[in-house]
């Protein structure tokens, strides 16, 4: 029903509106910008003749020019000489011990692997007089400031085993009956 209502308003007085639009005067176009004098002078025959005429003096100078090009000699890169350090030179082998199958083999200098971090934290916890921050920094190619932060803020877990008597007392404990 809504479509019929809109159609009625849309088609109302269509012919009169169309005639009114057609009878309107066409808008005048915007004035064109006057072009530069180049366009008027380009049409002159003197300029066309000057452009098309060959200059003998310039032609003789052009004939004297000879261009010879050669490729630069190819240099073979050898192992010696100056070159930028590659990432392979900046890596070091890890010190893993019995856990080497679990971790990466090469680590960039200034970083440590997860297994190495756990190992050095455990060594420092068990023997702090031997594994000082300076020794750890030298051993793993780390900065002393970072090693101090590592030892201060990361502490390895401690596994505690309960004695057997405690386990028996827990197993023998009978819950109280509620009455």
TrEMBL record:
Record GO cellular component, one term: mitochondrion
InterPro entries in UniProt: NDUFAF4
Region described as Disordered: 18-46
Listed Basic and acidic residues bias regions: 18-27
Pfam families (alphabetical): UPF0240
Single biological process term from Gene Ontology: mitochondrial respiratory chain complex I assembly
Complex and partners: Binds calmodulin. Interacts with NDUFAF3.
PANTHER family assigned to the protein according to its UniProt record, in alphabetical order: NADH DEHYDROGENASE [UBIQUINONE] 1 ALPHA SUBCOMPLEX ASSEMBLY FACTOR 4, UPF0240 PROTEIN
Membership in a protein family: Belongs to the NDUFAF4 family.
Protein name, as recorded: NADH dehydrogenase [ubiquinone] 1 alpha subcomplex assembly factor 4
Annotated source species: Helopsaltes ochotensis
Gene: Ndufaf4
